[in-house]
Write a structure and sequence with these properties.
With 189 residues, the protein is α/β, with parallel strands linked by helices. It has four helices and nine strands; from the N terminus they run αβαβαβββαββββ. Helix content is 23%, strand content 29%. Helix 4 links the parallel strand 5 and strand 6. Helix 2 packs across helix 3. The relative contact order is 0.20. Bound molecules: inosinic acid and magnesium ion. Magnesium ion binds next to loops.
Length: 189
């Protein structure tokens, strides 16, 4: 961090962040998504699985917008390999502690980018005998897709840019932004 940026008082607003979706826009869309999920799962008892770490903020708001009897679990996934590019080989770093046979599963993810992570995770969960497996993703960067993934509940389609905030990070930074921003220059951290 340079001396001048160290003196900047705000983490939530700096020259490297270009606002894309405001906190108000996000909350309004999540209210609609929660209402839709509550309607679709009426009378059922779905298990929402948050994908760590990026989905933790979205999941927190989504469950409070979903008036339904539901349960919450978390999984953590990582791509094999040291590079920044996803190899398509995916590893479960934290697995579920509960069986999901016969359960209605709703995977909750921050963003679908190439789709490699989610296509692996969704088929893995299906193979465990879940009754249904659906996906809710806050952001859909569709231009980047390498593997087709059906997203049942989409918050916002976004252009091909690197975004941070509202759970999404760059090198673990910016997860706490209350809104979503494009990170203009990742080298200038
Ligand atoms: P993919 O769909 O397998 O390529 O991987 C999606 C994962 O990559 C997401 O769950 C995020 O953790 C991360 N990711 C992809 N695009 C972005 C971005 O623009 N900002 C922050 N993380 C991202
Ligand atoms: Mg993620």
């Amino acid at each position: 961090m340079s001396a001048s940026s160290a003196q900047q008082s705000s983490e939530f607003s700096n020259a490297n962040l270009e606002p894309l979706l405001s906190a108000e826009q996000i909350q309004a869309r999540i209210s609609e998504m929660g209402a839709e999920i509550a309607r679709d799962y009426a009378g059922r008892n779905p298990l929402l699985i948050g994908v760590l770490k990026g989905a933790f903020v979205f999941l927190g708001d989504l469950v409070r917008a979903t008036d339904l009897r539901l349960a919450v679990e978390f999984m953590a996934i990582s791509s094999y390999g040291a590079g920044t590019r996803s190899s398509g080989e995916v590893k479960i770093v934290k697995d579920l502690d509960v069986p999901i046979e016969g359960r209605d599963i709703l995977v909750v993810e921050d963003i679908v980018d190439t789709g490699l992570t989610l296509s692996y995770l969704l088929s893995n969960l299906e193979s465990r005998g879940a009754r249904s497996v659906k996906l809710a993703a806050l952001l859909d960067k569709h231009e980047r897709r390498l593997r087709e993934v059906r997203i049942d509940y989409i918050g916002f389609p976004i252009p091909d840019a690197f975004v941070v905030g509202y759970g999404l990070d760059f090198a673990e930074r910016y997860r706490n932004l209350p809104y979503i921003a494009v990170l203009k220059d990742p080298s200038q951290d």
